Amino acid sequence: MLRTHCQTSGWSLAAQDVFNNVPRTCIEAAAAVAGHTQSLHTNSLDEALGLPTDYAARIARNTQLHLKHEGNMAHVIDPFGGSYLVEDLTQQLVEKARQHIAEAESLGGMAAAIEAGVPKLRIEEVATATQARIDSGSQTIVGVNKYQPQDSGDAEQVEVRRIDNSEVRSQQIARLKTLRKTRNQAAVDVALQALQQAAAGTENLVPFAIEAARQRATVGEMSDAMAREFGRHRATIQGVRGVWKQHMQASADMDLLKDRVDEFSKALGRAPRILVAKLGQDGHDRGQKVIASAFADLGFDVVTGPLFQTPDEVYDLAISHDVDAVGISTLAAAHLSQVPQLRKKLDAGASRHIELVVGGVIPPGDIPILERDGAAAVFLPGTKSTDAAMRLLDLLARRRNIS
Ligand code: B12
Fold first, then answer.
1. Please, is 382 exposed, middle or buried when counting C-beta atoms within 10 Å of its C-beta (0-12, 13-18, 19+)?
2. Closest residue to atom 1 of ligand 1, CA basis
């Protein structure tokens, strides 16, 4: 029997007016239960602020208890059985999925499609279009782009789970050292060698990986063993251009931004140039990509950095492209250590001031710390790209006396 697990969306949960996240999750969970899921994960109301607190996780768990015990939703197996609407929506989903599968097959299969960067590009296109609809208000997010609370300090009202990542890092390094000292290194080497040999052939790699794990090889060592045969995938960055603008509605903000970018270009002889970069082990690149797409469509000259860079690498990229600003997109809670490092490097090295701004999942309580350590502006989830562009132009213009 095909069993299904469902998780409610993390993307749909906002950093602003966070108690709206409870009904959002409840509606999504009810859809999953009505759709007959056998296993369910409900997200916490603090999803866009950090890892869940116990308080938020309890509400997420209780949402399931409500559906089961008070809504009695688990009593009926298939409440929408026979619904024409649901059948039609399912059919539309099947057709869209088939189009994507056909595209991948026409490129020579999924591995070849990934190599060509196509699945990633399709994801970025829809994410950019969605961002434009949110930016222009044609897609409503309650409490974010419409019906905002009077008091905008709402995010501060909930407790945010805080993790000292330098402490976690040193603990992990210590654990790794102990592991390496106490395991049978000869057995680890044999298992890794066998994994590498299997990767050179056509054998199923899973039993070899399990054996390596039993000998206490790390995930990094197993990956390296396979990478020696396969090499590593390097994603090519293909900017999505024109999609954001196509989905934006004409507005006074758009006109003003166009004038301001033109003004800047006239004064400097070129468009304002920004590097939108990712630091550290944070693999979340959607915010980076949508911001890069929106800024490019607004007339900025945008450089999009690769994933997993060190502050030194971001600095080198910024200098080699002679950018006016670096925008760091950070979602994995390493902002307090990495952003100040980059600011120091920029201050020590660049012959002129390079503006540094930061966006992503940042607990509001960390904003003053980031600002103290050199971030000129901080943009939380839910930021309108037009607002971010306006703010950045303010910062750049201030330094150059451009109106
Ligand atoms: C989608 C998502 C994923 C996707 C990422 C896909 C991808 N290619 O990006 C997947 C499923 C792969 C994923 C994986 C993981 N995730 Co995740 N993920 C999310 C989620 C739900 C949404 C992020 C997103 O795409 N938002 C949409 C974009 C458009 O918004 P955004 O990035 O915030 O950008 C906006 C603003 O922040 C701002 N902005 C952002 N950057 C910049 C830059 C500039 C220059 C400017 C001006 C503005 C700006 O403007 C943008 C437009 O408004 C968040 C929760 C959340 N709601 O934020 C968790 C979240 C970020 N993930 C989290 C975690 C823990 C993980 C995992 C570690 C889980 C795991 N144990 O494996 C892995 C890590 C993978 C890795 N290597 O990093 C945590 C991080 C916790 C923390 N910070 O303390 C979060 C916060 C969820 C949570 N509460 O637990 N994730």
1. middle
2. 11
DSSP state of 146: B
Residue 294 alpha carbon, nearest atom of ligand 1: 52
Whether 318 and 326 have beta carbons less than 8 Å apart is answered as: yes
Distance between CA 70 and CA 34 in Å, rounded? 15
Compute, in angstroms, the gap from residue 49 CA to the centroid of ligand 1. 10
Residues of the chain with pLDDT under 50: none
Q: Look at ligand 1, atom 51, and give the residue with the nearest C-alpha.
A: 287
């990542």: which residue's tokens?
165
- Which ranges constitute the DSSP H helices of 298-400? 311-320, 335-349, 367-372, 385-400
For residue 178, CA distances in Å to 46, 173, 181 come to 35, 9, 5
Q: What is the dihedral of CA 44, 47, 49, 54, to 10 degrees?
A: 30
CA of 296 to the centre of ligand 1 (A): 21
pLDDT tens sequence across 145-160: 999 988 765 555 799 9
pTM of the model: 0.94
Residues with CB under 6 A from ligand 1: 10-11, 13, 47-48, 50-51, 131, 276, 282-288, 290-291, 327, 329, 331-333, 357, 359-361, 379-383, 385, 388
Ligand 1 mean position, distance from CA 330 (Å): 8
> Length of the chain, please?
403
Return the C-alpha torsion angle 356, 359, 365, 371, nearest 10. 10
Quote the ligand 1 centre to 13 CA distance (angstroms): 11
Of all protein residues, whose CA lies closest to atom 68 belonging to ligand 1?
Answer: 332
Res 400: pLDDT: 77
Token readout for 74 is 């688990």
Q: Are 329 and 285 in contact (CB under 8 A)?
A: yes
Nearest to 340 by CA among 372, 379, 314, 367: 372
Residue pair 46/53 in contact (Cβ under 8 Å)? The answer is: yes
The pairing of beta strand 325-330 with beta strand 355-360: parallel
Using CA atoms, how far apart are residues 13 and 5, in angstroms rounded to an integer? Answer: 20
Which conformational region is residue 280 in: left (phi greater than 0), alpha (psi within -120 to 50 degrees), or beta?
A: left
As a whole number of angstroms, the distance between CA 343 and CA 318 comes to 12
